[in-house]
Amino acid sequence: KTPLTTSLIQAGDVLASREGESTVLLISDGIETCGGDPCAAVAAMREKGIKLVVHVIGFDVRGAAVEQLQCIARAGGGSYFQANDTNGLQQALQSVRAVVVEHKAPAPLPKPAPVMESPAVQAAAAPTEQSSSSRRVRIAGPGTVIIEPAAWVKTPPQHWVLVEAESGERRAEGSGLQTSVKEGEYQVVWKQSEHDHTEVPLTATVQVQNGQTTKVAIDTGLKPVTPAGVLPPHWWGLMPAEETLNAAIKYPDCIRFRDTLEAQVVPAGRYRLLWRQSEYTTTQDMGIITIESGRLNEIAMDSGLALQPADWVTAEPYYYALLDGQGKQIARWNTYGPQLAAPGRSTLVIRPTEHSHEDIIWGEVDIAAHGVQAVPINSGLRFLTAKDAPAPYRVFLVNLATSKEVVMKQSWGPLPLPPGRYRLDWRQTEHDHGKVRSTLADEIIIEPGVLLEVE
User: Fold this and answer.
1) What is the CA radius of gyration of the chain?
2) Sheet with 303-309, edge to edge strand ranges
3) Which residues contact 151 (CB under 8 A, 6 or more apart)?
4) What is the C-alpha to C-alpha distance for residues 401 and 347, in angstroms, rounded to an integer?
5) Per-residue confidence band for 115, with pLDDT thresholds at 50, 70 and 90
6) What would the pLDDT profile of 124-160 be if each residue is shown by its tens digit?
7) Three-class DSSP category at 54
8) Which residues are CB-neighbours of 34 under 8 A, at least 6 positions away?
9) 54, β-bridge pairs
10) Beta-carbon count within 10 A of 451 CB
11) Quick one: pLDDT at residue 256?
12) Widest distance between CA atoms in the chain
């Protein structure tokens, strides 16, 4: 893609606070493809009083791209320079230096070469006597593009598309191994399945010639390698490495794969790997990875934790989560067993049920770069009562070392608790006079690996 407008606006933002005139040099190999109007953007910045001059170099561009880049230079009060190869680029840069540093007038642009009629359409010889009112044309057939998937690529895909590199227009689509398209430069976009995968724009472009066959290798991919017991996630995906994860923002450029751990076709490059284990849990940032071109990149996804509940913990939790140093939730799950998590130190919080418990701060966990850390959930408390005894409105376990409390609502337990010393309080009913707690025990001790039964 070619985000000319966004690039120019960002440059203008940098220069807006400067008092003197500044120069912007834009070098582009194509037309705007992200929906902006770069000419209007430059004109608007200058009208706002941003003191800038925009010079433009067009590198190996033709047609509409040249016209648009010349328009940008005119709007920016600068000059346009054409470069058709690396030597031309060097000469153009020297010309820009002459204009900006030495204040010389720019050399006039060479006159454009006469437009030759495409060989794809050629008029026939003068009409014969037998066909005096007819005209014959010869049209070259389109080019053929054949894809060559690597052995690990699952075929056939839902579809693959040829997108015109300059305009972003979709020009051909297929689900087999080949398709036909007119001459031009294209990017391949791959979609593995209809509902479980997004479209994936691949890295390289394809040059297609009329009447000729072009072969394209589909051989760059990614396979996450996970520990035994890790289930396929709700989705995992890739986003640009320079972006950071924010759960409140949707990422239209994020490549996503749903309910699978199979190898996937992806473009080469550096990415931030995202992981969402289930639909109602948190999307995790698993760090930066590099995808190398021309091979299947196997990425070890083996950092995480596994909660190991005691046999008296009979139900799956409402959720458990990891919090960072500022108390922000960075990961969340609702089933026991091995779960992937980014390496680092964080705080483990457990909520056994939605309504009968509040969050229980279990303690800090250190997740290594490789390996699943076992976290036993085998200490706690439950009450032994007379049959049909009504449960109290609230039970409070106050940690005597930290003053933090664990609350259980209208239940006799069992209640998972991290080891420690606690004060046991409760309120028998919701409308107790003054809402005063009663202290049943000034100190009880929860030992590691022990369920304390309070009679």
Assistant:
1) 33
2) 337-340, 303-309, 371-377
3) none
4) 17
5) very low
6) 444 445 556 888 887 778 999 999 999 999 999 999 9
7) strand
8) 1, 2, 3, 4, 5, 6
9) 24, 77
10) 20
11) 93
12) 117
Distances (CA, A) of 113 to 30, 110, 116: 19, 9, 9
Helix (H) or strand (E) holding 297: strand 296-300
Both structure tokens of 43: 């004109």
- Tokens representing residue 44 in the block: 């608007």
**Rounded-to-integer distance, Cα 109 and Cα 210, Å:** 31
Count of positions (residues) in the chain: 455
The alpha helices in 113-203, defined as continuous H runs, are none
**Residue holding tokens 């779960």?**
339
Q: How many CA within 13 A on the CB side of residue 210?
A: 10
Instruction: For the beta carbon of residue 27, count every other beta carbon within 10 angstroms.
Output: 16
Name the residue with tokens 């997004």. Answer: 198
Find where tokens 């000729």 sit. 212
Partners of 298 in the beta sheet? 223
The two structure tokens encoding residue 222: 């990614």
Contact 386, 380 (CB under 8 A): no
User: Which pLDDT band holds residue 117 (cuts at 50, 70, 90)?
Assistant: very low
Mean confidence (pLDDT) of the chain: 88
- 52: which 2 tokens? 């800038």
Output the DSSP codes for 208-257.
E-TT-EEEEEE--EEEEE--TTPPPPSEEEEEETTS---TTS--TT-EEE
Q: Per-residue pLDDT tens for 269-316?
A: 999 999 999 888 888 999 999 999 999 999 999 999 999 999 999 889
Measured between alpha carbons, how far is 451 from 436 in angstroms, rounded to an integer?
A: 28
Per-residue confidence (pLDDT) for residue 112, from 0 to 100:
45
Residue appearing with tokens 């940032």: 285
Q: Are 298 and 225 in contact (CB under 8 A)?
A: yes
Residues 396-451: pLDDT tens digits? Answer: 999 999 999 999 999 998 999 999 999 999 998 887 655 778 999 999 999 999 99
User: Reading across the β-sheet that carries 284-291, which strands appear in turn?
Assistant: 255-258, 235-240, 269-276, 284-291
Which residue, among 29, 101, 43, has the nearest Cα to 74 in the 3D structure? Answer: 43
Sequence-distant (6+) residues with CB within 8 A of 196 are 257, 258, 259, 260
Task: Report which of 447, 312, 311 is spatially closest to residue 379, judged by C-alpha positions.
Answer: 447
